Amino acid sequence: MGVMTITWQDIYDYLRCPKILAFKVAGLRTRIKPRPPSPTIEPYVIGRVGEQVVETLLPPLTSPESDLSIAEEALSATEEGAPLREDVAREMTRTLFRIRSDLKERLLKKLESVQIQVTDKTVKTLLEKAVAGVQVAALKMRERYGELELLGRAEAKAPLLPSWLEPDFAFKPVDSETTIVVEVKNKAKIGPQDRFQASFYATLGRLGGIAVKEHFTLEEASLVPRALVKTPSSCVLLNVRDGTVMEMPGVEGIISFLRDVWEAKQLGLLGKQPEAERGDFCSRCRWKRLCSHFSTSGPPTATLDELAKPYPLIMAEWMLEHGKNLDLLWWNEYVSSLLHEVVHPYRRMFAEELRKARERGLSPPEALELELYVYEQLRTKVLSKIADHLGLDEQELQTLKSQSAMLTRKDIEAMCRDFKHEFEKWRGIMELLGHDPIKRRYGTIDLFNPWLNRGSVRKYGTLPRESDKLVSEAWKWWESKT
Ligand code: SF4
């Protein structure tokens, strides 16, 4: 649970009851859950199998040429919401791979690249179910959207909340310009939390934007990311285990209760609980022990007239007011990760040459100087190529080269001076964080140190394009509410 952000779990808890959200933020617990027995297969392997199957098989299976009659038969022979029978799943997988050995080869290669052993019996059964499930899902999605093209992995964010999530994939129907965000599950059954999570992705896309980091259209990832600002997309929840496809709309009216969610979180941090009416849910609620309606031993009830604005938003607004290019902050990290990938093999080659030169008599200081020089040259050359490919202009390139898109310590000092009144609002919370029970949960007041939080600006407030628009709109909204 992010202290300075609003996550989908926060909204989910708030909608159950604002008090529950405050209790959770305060680190309070209803009971200690017994540790579950170790799973026979790690959850991340289950998730990875589902993702790889969808990434590799869904686009080709939605093509008009793809024969999905076996999926149609399986669907009509299976009761609504029931899983596919194991023998049916095995037969569907065998049939597909007999006809499309190219897809089998591609999928196995993908799984190997993420170190998943398909020789393991449990993984094999899991894979068969997923391959059968994706055929059913492809049938449903082709009927609804037509042929799909994979755009890539996505990053959804809205500085207004502020929130950040990574949906599994972004697809595009071949015949339309819309974007479909897809969250993949590989579970026995989809639950209410899964549905809510997908709805929240759709909400982020509508309120903020989505950055598609990798573009897979030409099989290989291309370097050009996309920015989709205020996209009206919904989010498709796809359970690959049984082929469930649900189109989830955004969470309705989120703006109308956003301030109350934030207030409940801040009250939780202050060790208090908000007012909330009793409802039908109360009879089943596990938090009665702390709730003011049922007990006097819980945190005191309170309201807040003045709220502290989201921390990353304060920092992003300062950057905007001081002419910092927020888009470049996004690009800076993206280009750095590419640089590392591209330059690394050359560095290794050069290290080998350098070793030989040292054997021939090059001194260690000379070798170090040469290494730094060559790396700098290499970095500049690759950076120019990447910037050219991405379409960044000369000024943007120079800023990236000089790293001046980054926040410096001097910037942070100026930010703390200029926005003292905004940071001051966190003071009460900071001071209280020194006390139990919150200290036990969050440890230290350094949690609110702007220098340590500089990464959060990029995370919550930037996109490849139009970050300034998102941040200034979010700032105006919070100005009117705090
Ligand atoms: S008992 Fe009712 S009012 Fe109290 S925390 Fe639970 S849901 Fe909220």
Strand line-up in the sheet with most strands: 1-4-5-10-11
Distance between the termini: 22 Å
The major sheet is characterized as: 5 strands, mixed
Count of DSSP H/I helices: 19
- What are the low-pLDDT stretches, counting only 5+ consecutive residues below 50? none
Mean pLDDT: 86
Structural class call reads alpha+beta
How big a fraction of the residues is strand? Answer: 5-15%
Rg on CA atoms, Å: 26 Å
Q: Could you give the count of β-strands?
A: 11
Small-molecule binders: iron/sulfur cluster
Percent in helix: 40-55%
List the helices and strands in order.
HHHHHHHEEEEEHEEEEEEHHHHHHHHHHH
Bulk shape: globular
Structure commentary:
By secondary structure, the chain is α+β, with helices and mostly antiparallel strands. Among the domains are: 43-145, no CATH class; 326-402, no CATH class. Helix content is 54%, strand content 10%. It has 19 helices and 11 strands. It has helices at 8-16, 18-25, 43-61, 69-77, 86-99, 101-113, 121-145, 192-207, 254-269, 311-321, 326-359, 364-390, 394-402, 409-418, 420-424, 427-432, 438-442, 454-461, 467-481, and strands at 148-152, 154-158, 163-165, 169-173, 180-185, 209-212, 215-218, 220-222, 226-229, 235-239, 244-248. It has a 5-stranded mixed beta sheet. The protein has a 4-stranded antiparallel beta sheet with strand order 3-2-6-9. A two-stranded antiparallel sheet has the order 7-8. Strand 10 and strand 11 form a beta hairpin. Helix 3 (43-61) packs parallel to helix 7 (121-145), helix 5 (86-99) crosses helix 6 (101-113) and helix 12 (364-390) packs antiparallel against helix 13. It is globular, with a radius of gyration of 26 Å. The mean pLDDT is 86. The chain binds iron/sulfur cluster (SF4).
